[in-house]
Amino acid sequence: MGFIGAPCPHELKIPKGITVKKVIIIFLLLMTACAPLANPIQVLTSTPGLQSTVDLPPAYTPTPTPSPTHTPQPTPDIQLSDQNPGLLPDYIDDLAQLKDATRYSIDLEVTFDSEMRTAILDGWAQIQFRNHLDNPLHEIYLMLWPNDAQYQSSMVAGPVFIRDKVIEPAQELDGLALRVDLAIPLAPGETIDLGLPFRIEVGSMSPSAPRRFGITEGVLIAPTFYPLIPRIIDDEWDIRRAPSGGDTTNSDIALYQLRVTAPASFDLVASGVEIQKESIGDLQRLTYVTGPMRDVAIAVADFVDESRQVGDVTLTAWVLQDHVDDLDTVLDSATLQMQVLGDLVGPYPYPELDIVDAPHAFGGIEYPGLVFIGTLGTHWVVEPTVHEVAHQWFYGLIGDDQISEPWLDEAAATYAEALYYEQALGSGRATGFLSDFRAIVREHPDPMMPIGLPVGDYASTSDYAVFVYLKGALFFDALRRELGDRPFGDFLKAYYRQYLYGFASASGFQEVAEETCSCDLRDLFNLWVYEGGLISELER
Ligand SMILES: [Zn+2]
């Protein structure tokens, strides 16, 4: 998720030798996951431009949401070739292997109140889903993530239209999940088309309570704004709630077509590539296709935007007028990071990447083809930018279970910051960056804790940050030292090839590493990832 990068200051002892500037950087990160704790950045009161206090987030009381108003629409025929613009020409053939992926056609209308403090997202989702199991499916689940506490919005959806049948879905987990019971079970290999209306009431985000959905300083950020098909693990639908402090969604690669109608006076940014734009009075209607992505996000605001070409990819930064001074920093660092990871890991196959200013949305939050950066206007812009860009590879292209094995993407994205520094400023800067992490882990009362636990198994958000992000990045460094630079590079490329558009696991990651080096890495993985233990470089 949005980079956390360090423990909460009241729990953190700053080791000697870390400069004041680094301490400030570390603390700035904490404005994110530490928000629920009282005054986490009070030590920074002398630093200009920083808040002196961070209040407790307001208690969330969902307001009743009126029923969606959309009427059934005919099932659009979602052709595979319609997705071609979502990929660069060299990668269009990738679609052939994804012909059975879930296809979404989403129609969305965005309406703001006159002061742009609230919004209504009214939509219709048409979903084509194939049963990949060997058993018939008796029900299909849909996740309504805007009802999760991190989103603090209110979403309703249904009824569900399947052919000429209308099904009232059952709510589970306080509305986070909808269960659609099928009158006729979906046989193995069979495809079903579901259509349903949905409606989201969106509120304003408070600077003191970072979250991932809502209106923040005039920017509407809306990821996962549609009913999302969850994954199926071991023949069971994965409808787990997300523990606080970590990322929320797990979903397989799908193919999306989005048609978004919004006031013409705003800029509209979305995952994917715009293929059509219409004007309808005061409104604009934009249609996008994404190619293979596991989720999508949109943003609506009056932005200043600037683009760069990174090879064949158009990189665009969308920032508020107050943050135009950061445009070059964002574009320079994102450009280099895309080149670094394109070379070291594998190609970014989409024609576009959008980087969107989203004040207070944690340090930043990653979505495929679109990342939010929450820290523009502060001194801490480069790290969140290169971290979120790295998530395009680690989470976006190479999926992983963000709840059970978050280190796979968070440790990788944090280590990718070191890779960025290595290229931008030389290996000395990268070494110093990792040394700071080492010093912080050493100061923890139990530095032996493993990096491979689920989000909810760490005692606090602070521990989650120290072990998954910081010690996790140090594990990548240790793996690189164990394998050697060249084999480590070979491993990253092999890992990408193996799991591109798929879903990796810790054991799969280990297997690829062991195949690359033709060696047994059990002890290394047990020590760092699975069991933990004494690591000499992390001893005090
Ligand atoms: Zn992250």
State the secondary-structure class: alpha+beta
Termini separation? 30 Å
How is the main sheet built? 7 strands, mixed
CATH class of the domain at 80-302: Mainly Beta
Strand order of the largest sheet: 4-9-2-1-14-17-16
Strand content: 25-35%
**pLDDT averaged over residues:** 88
Please report the number of helical segments: 9
Gyration radius, to the nearest Å? 22 Å
What is the helix content? 10-25%
Q: So, the CATH homologous superfamily of the domain at 80-302?
A: tricorn interacting facor f3 domain
Bound molecules: zinc ion
Describe the protein:
- By secondary structure, this protein is of the alpha+beta class.
- It has a domain at 80-302: tricorn interacting facor f3 domain (Immunoglobulin-like, Sandwich), CATH 2.60.40.1730.
- The chain has nine helices and 23 strands.
- The strands form six sheets. A seven-stranded mixed beta sheet has the order 4-9-2-1-14-17-16, with no helix packed on it. It has a five-stranded mixed beta sheet with strand order 19-20-21-23-22, covered by helices on one side.
- α2 (327-344) crosses α4 and α6 packs across α7 (485-499).
- The chain is globular and about 65 Å long.
- The chain starts with 19 loop residues before the first helix and ends in a 10-residue tail after the last helix.
- The chain binds zinc ion.
- Zinc ion binds at residues 1, 3, 387, 391, 410, 413.
